[in-house]
Amino acid sequence: MMMDTAAAKDRQLLWVSGSSLVLIGIAALALPDIGRSWGERPWFEAVFLAGVVLLDAQIALFLALQALAGASARALSWLAAGYAFSAVAAATTFFVLPEIFQAAARRGNLPAIARWLWIAWHGGFPCFVLLALRAKARAGGRPREGGGRSSWFTLLPVAIGILLALAIDLGIVANAGALPAVGDGSDFGLAGSTIGAVVVVLNVFALMAVIYMTRLRELLYLWLALAVLAFTLDVLLSLAGAARYAAGWYVGHLLSLASAAALIGALVIENFRLHRDAELRAAFHEQEAMHDPLTGLFNRRYLTEKLPEELGRARRYRYPVSVLMVDADHFKVINDSQGHAVGDECLRALARTLGRRIHRFGDYSARYGGEEFVVVLPECHLHGAIEVAEEIRRRVADLHARGEAPRPLTVSIGAATADFAAAPSADALLATADECLYRAKRTGRNRVAWPQEPPAPHGLQATPI
Questions:
Q1: Average pLDDT, the chain
Q2: Across-strand partners of 218?
Q3: What are 75-93's pLDDT values in tens digits?
Q4: What is the C-alpha to C-alpha distance for residues 60 and 55, in angstroms, rounded to an integer?
Q5: Opening angle at CA 259, ends 258 and 263, nearest 5
Q6: Which of the four, 53, 61, 115, 361, has the lowest number of CB atoms within 10 Å?
Q7: What per-residue confidence (pLDDT) applies to 350?
Q8: 112 — pLDDT class (breaks 50, 70, 90)
Q9: Which of 68-82, 166-180, 215-229 has the lowest average pLDDT?
């Protein structure tokens, strides 16, 4: 699941709603002093611009990687382009304002070149947000098709954003003397100008478009709405304050920087959660694929994958491996006479018995097919395997008397052992156990059979081949 399709949860909506109220509340508190100077601190502007460059570049990179990973259409590419545009615009402003490092060198109003850079930056970013929303609407949530070169072609909007920012900013710098005057001559005296109104309208329209077009259903666009809100408040407060180092300028910059940091933090955290959930789901499905749904034991697929591995370790570390082939006696009669529901309950009771008998680490049982089960006993000689098999046989025979099975049930068991010196294959070992199983059935059922006579303990109801 990608960030642009992950559904926003109520908890996340509550966080973003609360954060939005906090941003608006802080902006409202700054209104009484909005035009008052809070003192010249050029280092603050340096920190702000550097922070914007770093945070917006990280957001652009993160979104671009998400787009490459297969996000729908090119919405994320255009959004990454917007943040790349913002990072380049902030970097350009940083380098054309050397006086931000020298408080004494700054006298008079903000140069016209800086005002035009601010206009390009704060008017361009919402345009990219609108382009991203348009791409999302056109895609309709469909996943991007294709790969290879077409995947890298998805990043074309990011290149456009970077090149456009460089072209606009370098054009402003190169033609500083020919730039028309804007505003009333003060630092941000654009509130009453047409171009200032255009910048405000673009940002407000982008914010409303994010809310209306996405309904804030997806996680990414929920947090994007918060970021665009902070960006819009920065524009409004800076224009209302009309001067650099005024209260509105400081508060707007702080809100914008805090929201960018919150956005990148939220993206990283939620992306981690999405990947973690995906890994848990994959592990769950893998676990489900290895288990029999009726009995809860491992299935034949698990057995065919793990038994060869176990035999390989046995040959390496020189220990025996025993297997028991367990089959319910007259099971077809149970199904035919009493129905499959009773038969299924008998199989579950048999599986519980096998599970209770396995005590050692490394032992396991699996449903081989139908009413047949296999018990794998690593580091167990044939003598020990026969003892385990006889205990299973006795417990199954007592299930009905103990009220654990719906009708009387017995099993026949074939035991076989792989000696590390002989090194048989998994198929050969199972074939030997199966041969012993049918020997037990032919000689009367409800008994254990094995390939050769070990020094058997007294009283075993067993039949060697």
A1: 83
A2: 7
A3: 889 999 999 999 999 998 8
A4: 9
A5: 120
A6: 361
A7: 94
A8: confident
A9: 68-82
Residue 370: both structure tokens together: 């139908």
3-state secondary structure the chain: CCCCCCECCHHHHHHHHHHHHHHHHHHHHHHHHCCCECCCCHHHHHHHHHHHHHHHHHHHHHHHHHHHCCCCCCHHHHHHHHHHHHHHHHHHHHHHCHHHHCHHHCCCCCCHHHHHHHHHHHHHHHHHHHHHHHHHHHHCCCCCCCCCHHHHHCCHHHHHHHHHHHHHHHHHHHCHHHCCCCCCCCCCCCCCCHHHHHHHHHHHHHHHHHHHHHCCCEHHHHHHHHHHHHHHHHHHHHHHHCCCCEHHHHHHHHHHHHHHHHHHHHHHHHHHHHHHHHHHHHHHHHHHHCECCCCCCECHHHHHHHHHHHHHHHHHHCCCEEEEEEEECCHHHHHHHHCHHHHHHHHHHHHHHHHHHCCCCCCEEEEEECCEEEEEEECCCHHHHHHHHHHHHHHHHCCCCCCCCCCCCCEEEEEEEECCCCCCCHHHHHHHHHHHHHHHHHCCCCCEEECCCCCCCCCCCEEEC
| Tokens, residue 191 | 């509130």
Per-residue pLDDT reduced to its tens digit, 227-266: 999 999 999 998 888 777 889 889 988 988 887 888 887 7
pLDDT value of residue 86: 94
Global pTM reads: 0.64
